[in-house]
Amino acid sequence: MTSTLQEHPVLVLDFGAQYAQLIARRVREADVYSEVVPHDTPAEEILAREPAALVLSGGPASVYSEGAPRLDPALLQAGVPVLGICYGFQAMAAALGGDVAHTGQREYGETKARIGDTDCTLFHGQPEEQPVWMSHGDSVSRAPDGMAVTATTPGAEVAAFEDNERRLYGVQWHPEVLHSAFGQRVIENFLRRGAGLAPTWTRGQIVEELVEQVREQVGDAHVICGLSGGVDSSVAAALVNRAVGDQLTCVFVDHGLLREGEARQVEEDFVAATGVDLVVVDAQERFLSALAGVSDPEQKRKIIGREFIRVFEQAARDVAGTADAEGHPVKFLVQGTLYPDVVESGGGTGAANIKSHHNVGGLPEDLQFTLIEPLRALFKDEVRQVGLELGVPEGIVWRQPFPGPGLAIRVVGAVDAERLAVLRRADGIAREELTRAGLDREIWQCPVVLLADVRSVGVQGDGRTYGHPVVLRPVSSEDAMTADWTRVPYDVLARISGRITNEVPEVNRVVLDVTSKPPGTIEWE
Ligand code: XMP
Questions:
Q1: How far does residue 382's CA lie from ligand 1's centre (Å)?
Q2: 415: burial class by Cβ within 10 Å (0-12, 13-18, 19+)?
Q3: pLDDT of residue 77
Q4: Residue from 176, 260, 262, 389 carrying the catalytic annotation
């Protein structure tokens, strides 16, 4: 497959901390394509990919301890520019003949780095003193020969070094985290000044390249795509549509568990913006009757998954029938797999498993499509950029993550049309006010949960009421694996609470969930 932008990637060697993906993202934010590879990938294999540069990530180990991930010195001798970060920095120092020691001076969290040379490669154009994020027990106590020490911190005499001759660079702190105020500039300096890389991974170029790849893969076959209304499937569909136009048919199963306005967003706005051929299946009644009386969340998920497959399968058969008549066999099923899914499931190429919670798993044997995963190389923020480039409506591009089983798992208790309507209104108000307060980018997602089986006493108007509570669950997160509750300003919370209890008579109490994840999950069910 042609892949000019991805041909000479910046490879991030993952030494076992949670930072490798973040580093790859930051490299891409500097408009250079980057991938994560496990640290035990043989050096020949890494070098065979002709990487434009290497970044050695941080990691929890101590370089001299038994079983610590090793850095093959061959990687430092291949003439490829290298940036070592934290553990990677220490591993580099040790491999090049410097010393790493338990100095007893641990540094965790924010500290100040003093830059010795603001003309050097990594710190060019940056202030002499900068806040940086540290997390280390060991320190480099002597830099390897030929390395110029370019920064110090209170706990590390050698906090950064570089050798422009060999194009080897290192920093003790974490430039990839936002607490390191000039971190992104450090990464950019490494890429541009150290490695001489031009900014090529831009959204226009990415679209061009992915479109080309889809065309090559699809040929003149027909493609089907299940649209959920979410960012990933919408952008994937828009991309395939840009590539092969009317060879694509999208299927939107309206299970009636979406939020206010979301079905319309797909059926009207998305279609108008992209011109995709869309089949809408109205299955609201079917899902509601299958869910009637069920309050166990896993049971709900199972039922929704099962019904979804049945409905989608029928729609796919119908589409397959039509497409056959046009002479194009339906051969491909679009899936919005993203790069973090690929890395987390062991990486590599090869077909990814269909994500079970995407609810498209388990199609019957005779409907086995080849998966087409046009977003496989992208991070979420890149998917959004690509979506904007393709003209996908902003309301969809910036939509917060929303679970496949939808509002069904946000009604604690059995789901019925009335409860869904109550939740939809409360949720609509919360979303509107959070957006109005400009908090959409700060909040990863904000489930609104209806405690349908709980009632509490209240006074509304001139009478006592016996209504339901709703829970607001605003969280901030990078990837939903961990999350913290968002400190939404009190006046915004007050407006949401006031409006919900005024405008949704069934709700007489609004409560705020102030639990981080872990221990609390983001969704309540
Ligand atoms: P939790 O609740 O596990 O959620 O902290 C993490 C992320 O996953 C979403 N989520 C789901 N998405 N099907 C989905 O497609 C599901 O069954 C499901 N459960 C949780 C949740 O919204 C959050 O973004």
A1: 21
A2: buried
A3: 97
A4: 176
